[in-house]
Amino acid sequence: MATMTSGRHGIIRVGRRPGRDRGDVRAQRNSLRRTVFLVPGIALLGLLGVYPLIQLVWMAFHRVTSATINSGPWEWVGLDNFVQGFQLGETGPAITRTLVVVAIVTVFGMVGGFAAAVALRTSGWWSSALLALMVFVWALPPVVNGSVWKFLLSDNGLVNAIVMALGRSTPIPFLYDTNWALLSVAFVGAFAVIPFNALVFRAALLAVDPEIFEAAALDGVNRWGEVRHIMMPSVRPTSLVLLVLTMVYAFRSFDFIFVMTYGGPGTATNTLPFLGFLQAFARFNFGYGAATSVLAVIVVLVLAVIYARSIRKEEA
């Protein structure tokens, strides 16, 4: 862009240097190119992510059943779907079960992942074998993983065979007792998330300068001292991010419940996401199920905001 200055013979037009102009044009082209590349991603995100979310919230405030889902307009019911869930005694217990699952998966997933990362940090055939096994477990589809655990935890499964070999007279009802079923599903969820957490923790530990461990060894620090004073402080920034991710994973617990217990026995393993699924796709009360799912979405959104702030703080 040219600028104007006043001189002795009137206004004089002063042009910018050609190199600077070319730089501005190149910057504009790069900005336009980035915008063009973003358009398909934004369009897909809006189509597959934002639009279904808006539709879900809209359904939560209407009476939508199998008879009315393809006809409109839907009847507006306000907060009735949300209130009905608590009045019928379904939403409150489901929230409690969800919190139990989140607590078990988060604690065992974080502790187990860190312990595995410490073990995998050392070199040797057994650490390589353990790493390969954990990657294999992590890569298994949840349906396959859940089916394997359903077999292992059955009355004639491997776990009960070991328990009865140790002296117990009857098998433990892992999958059909109201208390054991929820614990079993939560344990399998924790077992499934440990490999991912271990790989993330291991990457953080490998970034620690080896000279720090050598200096600690010269000072006589034992293995527990290395874990407490070197490894745990080193993974602290990673731990916060991983904690939020693990909580989100636990809160979305659905796959293992669907395969192992289908919400039973009774309602013993009906967590919030699975309850929403049953209400919408088993009872065909889509408005009611959407209201339950909206509650789950709100919690996930809160965790997503915490995760984003943690990432920003770590990158600062």
From TrEMBL:
Listed name of the protein: Carbohydrate ABC transporter membrane protein 1 (CUT1 family)
Membrane topology according to the record: Multi-pass membrane protein
Annotated ABC transmembrane type-1 domain residues: 95-307
Similarity comment: family membership: Belongs to the binding-protein-dependent transport system permease family.
Entry keyword annotation includes Transcription: no
Domain of life, source organism: Bacteria
Keywords: Cell membrane, Membrane, Transmembrane, Transmembrane helix, Transport
Gene Ontology cellular-component annotations: plasma membrane
Compartmental location: Cell membrane
Main localisation: membrane
Record carries keyword Kinase: no
Bilayer-crossing regions: 36-61, 94-118, 125-144, 180-201, 240-264, 284-308
Pfam assignment, any one: BPD_transp_1
Classification via Gene3D superfamilies: MetI-like
GO BP: transmembrane transport
